[in-house]
């Protein structure tokens, strides 16, 4: 990827599958508590291009992680529509992967066996399975650690192993829910650079929730800024810089100040107070 246009413009960047467009339309999510409804997400409209890296930031409780769960199909009780390419999202599927804040590796398995777990539902020849595991361990910089156990890895290495497991099925979209939140500050900076490299090489559409505005700007083609509950999109920030990025860029610092100003602004609308649960019309 030496062409700077490709690094700057996701529309020109090749993807691993050639697909991975996500379109969210009129998305709302409610939780029923004691016969009343709490609105968690309200009127979310978002279009994500194939191969794009989108970061999502917002106050605690604004529905960022809920939005990811809906995109990957872990929760199907919502109003509105989520589409991956031309298909409506209805439940989980191998075309969507998820990485959590905790790496969730099985401690009794080697790193290679942990990655292989993601392939159990695919009927693949042993040679193809082994090649996929080796390729994805190499992608995340763990080619020499396939026989290691999770306790023998650093926190950053374990999280990269989790990313390899999520990518080994070659999903169209990878959702990351605070994937670096458990790491110390120095390790986090290093793994951010590794995640950027992995994304650039894999070409997978990535959607990441984070509380770290610096991280969101360093990695994202765009940053979606959400408001307090009920979660709405307050602003979408285009980060018009090529990858890999220079953390000292004046643009990143200016955008950080603007996003922090948005996040610390006093609420102007409904604060998510419980109301009587209304009749629901499901699409």
UniProtKB/TrEMBL annotation:
Highest taxon listed in the record's lineage: Bacteria
A molecular function GO annotation: ATP binding
Alphabetical list of InterPro entries matching this protein: AAA+_ATPase, ABC_transporter-like_ATP-bd, ABC_transporter-like_CS, ABC_transporter_ATP-bind, P-loop_NTPase
Species, as recorded: Novosphingobium clariflavum
Protein name in the entry: ABC transporter ATP-binding protein
Residue intervals of the ABC transporter domain: 22-253
Keywords for this protein: ATP-binding, Nucleotide-binding, Transport
Pfam families associated with the record: ABC_tran
Similarity comment: family membership: Belongs to the ABC transporter superfamily.
């Amino acid at each position: 990827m030496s062409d700077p246009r490709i690094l700057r413009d996701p529309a020109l960047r090749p993807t691993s599958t050639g697909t991975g467009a996500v379109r969210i339309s009129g998305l709302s999510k409610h939780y029923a508590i004691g016969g009343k409804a709490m609105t968690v997400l309200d009127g979310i409209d978002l279009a994500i291009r194939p191969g794009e890296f989108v970061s999502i930031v917002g106050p605690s409780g604004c529905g960022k992680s809920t939005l990811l769960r809906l995109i990957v199909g872990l929760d199907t009780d919502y109003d509105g529509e989520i589409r991956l390419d031309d298909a409506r999202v209805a439940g989980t599927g191998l075309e969507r992967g998820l990485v959590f804040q905790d790496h969730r590796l099985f401690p009794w398995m080697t790193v290679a066996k942990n990655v292989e777990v993601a392939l159990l539902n695919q009927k693949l020849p042993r040679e193809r399975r082994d090649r996929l595991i080796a390729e994805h361990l190499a992608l995340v910089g763990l080619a020499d650690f396939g026989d290691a156990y999770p306790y023998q890895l650093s926190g950053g290495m374990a999280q990269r192993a989790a990313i390899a497991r999520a990518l080994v099925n070659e999903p169209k979209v990878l959702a990351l829910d605070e994937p670096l939140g458990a790491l110390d500050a120095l390790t986090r900076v290093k793994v951010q650079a590794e995640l950027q490299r992995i994304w650039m090489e894999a070409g997978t559409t990535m959607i990441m929730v984070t509380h770290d505005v610096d991280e969101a700007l360093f990695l994202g083609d765009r940053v979606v800024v959400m408001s307090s509950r009920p979660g709405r999109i307050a602003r979408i920030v285009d980060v018009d810089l090529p990858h890999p990025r220079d953390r000292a860029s004046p643009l990143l610092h200016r955008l950080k100040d603007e996003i922090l100003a948005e996040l610390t602004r006093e609420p102007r609308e409904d604060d998510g107070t419980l109301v009587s649960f209304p009749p629901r019309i499901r699409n």
